[in-house]
Amino acid sequence: MKPIKSIIRQLPGLKSLFDYLESSEFILLGTLAGFIGLSGAIGVWIFKSMIHGFEHINFGIMGAWLQQHSIGLVVLIPVAGGLLVGGLKSWLIGVEKYRGVAGIMEAIAWGGGRLKYKLIPSKTVISALSIGSGASVGPEDPSVQIGSNLGSMIGQWLNYSEERIQSLVAAGAAGGVAAAFNAPIAGVFFAMEVLLGELSSRAFGIIVIASVISAAFTQAVSGTQPAFQLTNFTFHSARELPFYLILGLLSGLVAAAYIYILFKSQELFNRI
Fold it and tell me: Which ranges in the chain belong to alpha helices (H)?
């Protein structure tokens, strides 16, 4: 199968445009980043719409029917959803080499940013079903995966180098975070600090483009309100600072304990 780049060069109407874009690396990558940011935002918007649809079916329609018989029967919805999600994941996805955000980091560091993007439609539907059935998780991780896989897909289709693919994956991840939280700056810092782990001028530019375009589309279709509504904060005196230090330390310990228990639980269920 010919790479997409070779197919494009055979099309008279697109050949000159592609040659012009390719003559400037930043223009080309910036154009691709804008496309990835917009496509990722559309994908996240569809993903969130699917969550609301499953929630309406499960807790609006089925939940109301179950409550007519016994209010305790509502607990069957998350149980049935978990069983269905587990079966679909085993059937459609199977064992993954790179899982979740940590898997994207591994793919960037060790796999040249090459992700199995063909699995993203199945993973998106399964994730929406899981959240829509009451799973205690949010849309952030799947949103990052939607954007990252789009970036990896474009890079692999164009037969790009590992460095370019890694940059496009990071740009897609930034767009996913921007769409999930309606926060473009958070998307930029997430991609640069968490995924790439370094500040590159070329990567920074395309990451900003993808994140801003993704946030612009999200705000156009969903409004400008942020994902989390925070109360007004007033700082009274420096005597409050030690308590924030204690809060930060306790939060870190709780987070580490939660991650430890999560992985141990996963190992336990994998052995069953």
Answer: 4-9, 12-23, 25-55, 63-69, 76-88, 100-110, 120-132, 140-157, 162-181, 184-189, 201-222, 241-271
Task: Indicate if 97 and 12 belong to the same structural domain.
Answer: yes
Give yes or no: residues 177 and 248 share one domain: no
d(CA 206, CA 88): 35
**Could you give the 3-state DSSP secondary structure of residue 223?**
coil
What would the pLDDT profile of 127-148 be if each residue is shown by its tens digit?
Answer: 999 998 888 777 888 899 999 9
Structure tokens at 25: 């690396």
Is 242 found in the same domain as 222?
Answer: no
Residues 113 and 171 in one domain: yes
In this structure, the answer to whether residues 141 and 242 fall within a common structural domain is no
User: Would the pTM count as exceeding 0.85?
Assistant: no
**Structural domain boundaries, residue 244:** 238-272
Is 233 contained in some domain? no
What six digits make up the tokens of 158?
């164009």
Residue 72 lies in a domain: yes
pLDDT one-digit tens code per residue, 8-48: 555 555 556 555 555 566 778 888 999 999 999 999 999 99
Q: Based on the number of CB atoms within 10 Å of its own CB, is 119 exposed (0-12), middle (13-18) or buried (19 or more)?
A: middle
CA 37-26-113 angle, 5° bins: 55
